[in-house]
């Protein structure tokens, strides 16, 4: 394949969650293109499974979509280099009010490879121990229990469109059911 090289990267905006850059790229045909690049520090997500085999999900408002979504619990790492397993355990307790007696890695995903480096480690939490939620000041969500088959139906009929949630639920079904 012909080589594509970044000539320079310019910061356009520094945000709370992501940084937005313009990358100036040297292309094989001799032209230069400007590509968007969104830098994300990374995240973790978790599929919490109850003793009865139900999956805890969170319903929350997502500004980018202007609607409520149903998702697995997830959140950004506190700092670059924070172990994803540690982040997953923290997000599980913060969002659902449960700790995991057992936390096992399931899959890793990159969410939007065309313009963002977001990398999410996804885990399965079992042997859940009730504690209490610790939501952020700007975080409002409801915890719901769902059967796996119900979640699969929601993925296939378009009610669940969140990439990390769909990938996680489908991978969970293959590996654990």
Structure class = alpha+beta
The string of secondary-structure elements, in order, is: EEEEEEEHEEEHH
Biggest sheet layout:
4 strands, mixed
Strand content: over 45%
Question: How much is the radius of gyration in Å?
Answer: 18 Å
With strands numbered from the N-terminus, the spatial order across the biggest sheet is 7-4-9-8
- CA-to-CA gap between the ends? 41 Å
Q: Spans with pLDDT under 50 lasting ≥5 residues?
A: none
Helix content: 10-25%
Number of separate strands: 10
Outline: elongated
Count of runs of 4 or more consecutive helical residues: 3
pLDDT average, as an integer? 96
Instruction: Note the quaternary state here.
Output: single chain
Provide a descriptive summary of the structure in words:
This protein is of the alpha+beta class. Helices cover 20% and strands 46% of the residues. The protein has three helices and ten strands. A hairpin with a 5-residue loop joins strand 2 (18-26) and strand 3. The longest helix is centred in the C-terminal third of the chain and has 14 residues, at 163-176. It is elongated, with a radius of gyration of 18 Å.
Highlighted features:
177 residues, alpha+beta, 3-stranded antiparallel beta sheet, 3 helices, 20% helix, elongated
Task: Give the helix/strand layout.
Layout: E1 5-14, E2 18-26, E3 32-40, E4 43-48, E5 55-62, E6 67-71, E7 74-76, H1 84-96, E8 98-110, E9 119-130, E10 141-146, H2 148-156, H3 163-176
Parallel strand pairs: 4-9
Antiparallel strand pairs: 1-2, 2-3, 4-7, 5-6, 5-10, 8-9
């Amino acid at each position: 394949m012909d080589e594509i090289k970044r000539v320079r990267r310019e910061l356009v905006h520094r945000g709370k969650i992501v940084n937005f850059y313009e990358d100036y790229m040297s292309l094989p045909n001799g032209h230069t293109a400007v590509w968007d690049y969104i830098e994300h520090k990374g995240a973790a997500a978790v599929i919490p499974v109850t003793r009865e085999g139900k999956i805890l999900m969170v319903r929350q408002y997502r500004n980018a979509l202007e609607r409520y979504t149903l998702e697995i619990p997830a959140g950004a790492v506190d700092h670059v280099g924070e172990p994803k397993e540690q982040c997953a355990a923290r997000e599980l307790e913060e969002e659902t009010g449960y700790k995991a007696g057992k936390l096992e890695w399931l899959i890793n995903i990159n969410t939007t490879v065309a313009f963002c480096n977001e990398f999410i480690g996804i885990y399965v939490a079992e042997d859940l121990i009730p504690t209490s939620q610790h939501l952020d000041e700007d975080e409002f969500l409801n915890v719901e229990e769902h059967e796996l088959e119900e979640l699969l139906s929601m993925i296939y009929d378009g009610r669940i469109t969140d990439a990390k949630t769909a990938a996680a639920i489908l991978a969970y079904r293959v590996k654990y059911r």
